[in-house]
């Protein structure tokens, strides 16, 4: 079976990423999203590591990941998996929750897997409407799908409060890595600058952000790369700007986290802009 994927945006769903894909050998490395992930499995099985264990989502189920939550992804059966996904921003989900549910606080999903063939169908209808340029249907169906999933599986997200000394050091380390993304310090240098030891920093960072600093930095570089590609910067320039050694280095990491190469990702964005 051939692997294929399309990652795009529809002008009438601002800030919402859309994906259709079939993967067989594809493996997503540990990464995060700024938006929610609502992935509707049509065929096969996806396995993704989330919250300390492997989660399995088969046909008729949805994989649900809250923003900034580390997770992976791979096939759970030899034939892989086929799915469609929508990635609504936190603001959109909060707006829908306020209008249609009794949830208080910052809304999110409680369980990472929900068996609900009806909601799976709604997600695929959103994608179809976007492909057909049916703005009324796409917006309506997205709101119906998010409302249904929040009512079935919604709850307030826990607040991340930086209280402990370790958490404060991890937050400071993250700030340094964001500022020095293109030329980061070594773990030893970073720890020394923050007045701690390398292993103490490593433990604190993993506790707060769910991954070690080097993995978090790669994830952050890909996020920044997406922003630059959205703005029309050439992939070769993006690679240097975010700290990858060259474009093949960017291509490898970008594809392992986003699911499509940066060139294909940018072409879809350009197509949307050209249609405006």
TrEMBL record:
InterPro entries: AraC-bd, AraC_XylS_family_regulators, Homeodomain-like_sf, HTH-like, HTH_AraC. One of its GO terms (molecular function) is sequence-specific DNA binding. Pfam families: AraC_binding, HTH_18. The keyword Flavoprotein does not apply. SUPFAM superfamilies: Homeodomain-like, Regulatory protein AraC. Keywords: DNA-binding, Transcription, Transcription regulation. The keyword Transcription regulation applies. PROSITE patterns: HTH_ARAC_FAMILY_2. Residues 171-268 form the HTH araC/xylS-type domain. SMART domains: HTH_ARAC (SM00342). PANTHER family: HTH-TYPE TRANSCRIPTIONAL ACTIVATOR RHAS-RELATED, TRANSCRIPTIONAL REGULATORY PROTEIN. This is AraC family transcriptional regulator.
């Amino acid at each position: 079976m051939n692997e294929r994927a399309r990652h795009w945006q529809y002008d009438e769903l601002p800030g919402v990423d859309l994906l259709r894909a079939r993967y067989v050998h594809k493996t997503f490395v540990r990464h995060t999203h700024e938006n929610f992930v609502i992935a509707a499995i049509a065929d096969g099985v996806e396995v993704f590591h989330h919250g300390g264990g492997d989660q399995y989502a088969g046909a008729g189920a949805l994989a649900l990941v809250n923003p900034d939550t580390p997770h992976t992804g791979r096939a759970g059966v030899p034939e892989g998996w086929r799915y469609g996904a929508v990635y609504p921003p936190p603001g959109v989900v909060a707006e829908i929750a306020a209008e249609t549910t009794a949830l208080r606080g910052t809304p999110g999903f409680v369980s990472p897997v929900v068996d609900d063939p009806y909601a799976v169908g709604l997600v695929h209808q959103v994608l179809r409407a976007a492909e057909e340029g049916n703005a009324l249907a796409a917006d309506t169906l997205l709101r119906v799908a998010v409302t249904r999933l929040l009512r079935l599986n919604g709850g307030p997200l826990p607040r991340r409060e930086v209280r402990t000394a370790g958490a404060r050091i991890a937050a400071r380390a993250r700030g340094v890595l964001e500022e020095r993304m293109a030329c980061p310090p070594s773990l030893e240098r970073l720890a020394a600058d923050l007045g701690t030891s390398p292993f103490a920093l490593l433990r604190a960072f993993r506790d707060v952000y769910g991954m070690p600093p080097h993995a978090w930095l790669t994830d952050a570089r890909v996020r920044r790369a997406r922003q630059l590609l959205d703005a029309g910067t050439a992939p070769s320039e993006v690679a240097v700007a975010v700290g990858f050694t060259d474009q093949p280095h960017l291509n490898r990491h970008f594809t392992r986290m986003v699911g499509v190469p940066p060139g294909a990702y940018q072409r879809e964005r350009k197509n949307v802009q050209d249609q405006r």
